[in-house]
């Protein structure tokens, strides 16, 4: 088949947002039958990290791994460069467009221009794709995107040191930096100083509206504090002898915020505590490389926990499902936010029992998210059956938990009929499961993609504002290196 042209990609945001862009760029190149040039990273984002693709990922391995599906080159051939006009045609595609949008509306443009650059490329492809394209996403994300040897080596050193201390460990992704709190619009009791500090940061998102902090908390949009995530873990049964690795940036209010978590879990470690200055110096001034080290330690942990639902959490949750449903605890923030507000009015036993109840479905069990539900990057259901470890874990889980259909239907009928047994907010989920058992299929929403416009851009883009649309759409600051 004739190649239609060359595809340039400008991946935006932090490490994990860029990872999504790289993964989807391979799929788009296949849809367009284009030769993909190794994606370029945006150096003007909030993090101001000058790292390139080859500084973080093994570029030769990447090219070799995706070769059966897409041709990838490191740079445009000199002959093509000479034939180009002064400005390459830039285009920003709307967010989460379906596959056919590229086939029908972008392919002819690529043929005409021969070289096309897609800018701010993150989450620019729909969640739901055909199975073969989803599997290409998985092959790219979980197999082709391998960190450089230097990053893998230092990451493994930290994993080995954690295991030497406690054999097993929990990794906590603690997103509690000032930019994250400012973007959330939440209030954490810091008075006028907090309002002033976070308010000034919020000004960089021009389209971000002023929010009601209490409403945001009720809606589950406020990350748990370090103390709250520590209390959640203790309520789930993890004792103070647990070894905890914390992956984070500069936590807002520093030691004052971390002190309660350290009191709950004295075996508290970070990469800065585990590694010496000489070991970290090659990476210290590059936020994406430091985030990659944390990613490796979190990926290889026995349990992964988060206080948020940002890009890194979604990517890691999907990878851990793919690699055998490794335990991943994500807080049910909407329910826990209300519960924490009332915890002083109940006994510890009642509080812990409520935490365990609300966390059902948020602890990484194989069947807790149905195929097609949630985002593909945190639930790559189309690919999991291809991994022997995940398949075996799923088989064991089914044997231990899944009843015969008739028994389960009778149980569902009994539980749905009793408001004293099932809380009101949980009955809709149980009824949906009950309907599934009876063969009732629910229709899924489809995007009105025919109406999606193209967004032309000049070659010299305006400065990246990191989150005017990206952060709002994903519920997180788009500069999610941590």
TrEMBL record:
Tell me the segments the record calls region Disordered: 439-482
Q: Does the keyword RNA-binding apply?
A: no
Origin, by domain of life?
A: Eukaryota
Acidic residues: compositionally biased ranges: 458-482
What InterPro entries has UniProt attached to this entry? FucosylTrfase_pln, GDP-Fuc_O-FucTrfase
Among the GO molecular function terms of this UniProt record, one is:
glycosyltransferase activity
Q: Which GO terms describe its biological process?
A: fucose metabolic process
Q: What is this protein called?
A: O-fucosyltransferase family protein
Q: Which organism is it from?
A: Physcomitrium patens
